[in-house]
Each structure stands twice: as structure tokens, then as C-alpha cells.
């Protein structure tokens, strides 16, 4: 698969989950939502799991994927602690 196609599919998947942060999707479900072949998405989703962008729940064809929102500065307590 060409690098350009891989990157485009990665962006599509990340944007879907970013815009639907509570979505729980299988490869087949995501395939239907994005209008892409499931076979193409499988490698993409595994790559996003390895990058900690998605979490994979379960194994095999019934695996479910969900978004891991990035930690932002707003999420952290930035108060200075005095000694």
C-alpha cells in the first residue's frame, strides 16, 4: 500500500474517533462508516494502537477500537508547590 494512502487512512480514522470520542467500533463498523475496505483498515488501526492513539479491546475480528484522548495542559495540575 502506498505511503500516501496509508497516511490518508490514518488521518480519516483519527478524525473519526476525535469527532466521536465515545465511539466503540469494530473494523467492520468503521469500514461501513468510512466507506473503506475492512482489509485496508486493519493495518491502519493496529498502527494507531501502537502509537497509543487508539485502544484495542479484545482479539481477532471482533476486536473493538476506541479513542484515547491526548493529555492537554488543561488536564494537568500546574500549581507550583512551595517548600
Report on this structure.
This is Transcriptional regulator. The protein is mainly alpha-helical. It contains 3 helices and 2 strands, in the order H-H-H-E-E. It has helices spanning 3-19, 27-34, 38-50, and strands spanning 54-57, 64-67. The protein has a two-stranded antiparallel sheet with strand order 1-2. The termini are far apart. The mean pLDDT is 89.
Shape estimate: elongated
CATH architecture: Orthogonal Bundle
The CATH homologous superfamily is called: Winged helix-like DNA-binding domain superfamily/Winged helix DNA-binding domain
Note the main sheet. Answer: 2 strands, antiparallel
Low-confidence stretches: none
Query: Under CATH, the topology is which?
Result: Arc Repressor Mutant, subunit A
Report the helical percentage.
40-55%
The largest sheet has its strands arranged as 1-2
Mean pLDDT across residues: 89
* CATH class placement: Mainly Alpha
Instruction: Quickly count the helices.
Output: 3
SS-based class: mainly alpha
- For the record, the count of structural domains works out to 1
Topology order in helix (H) and strand (E) letters? HHHEE
C-alpha end-to-end distance: 56 Å
Amino acid at each position: 500500500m502506498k505511503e500516501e494512502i496509508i497516511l490518508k487512512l490514518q488521518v480519516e480514522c483519527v478524525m473519526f474517533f476525535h469527532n466521536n470520542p465515545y465511539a466503540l467500533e469494530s473494523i467492520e463498523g468503521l469500514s461501513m462508516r468510512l466507506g473503506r475496505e475492512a482489509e485496508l483498515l486493519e493495518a491502519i488501526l493496529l498502527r494507531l494502537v501502537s502509537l497509543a492513539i487508539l485502544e484495542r479491546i479484545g482479539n481477532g475480528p471482533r476486536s473493538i477500537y476506541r479513542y484515547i484522548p491526548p493529555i492537554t495542559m488543561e488536564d494537568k495540575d500546574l500549581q507550583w508547590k512551595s517548600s
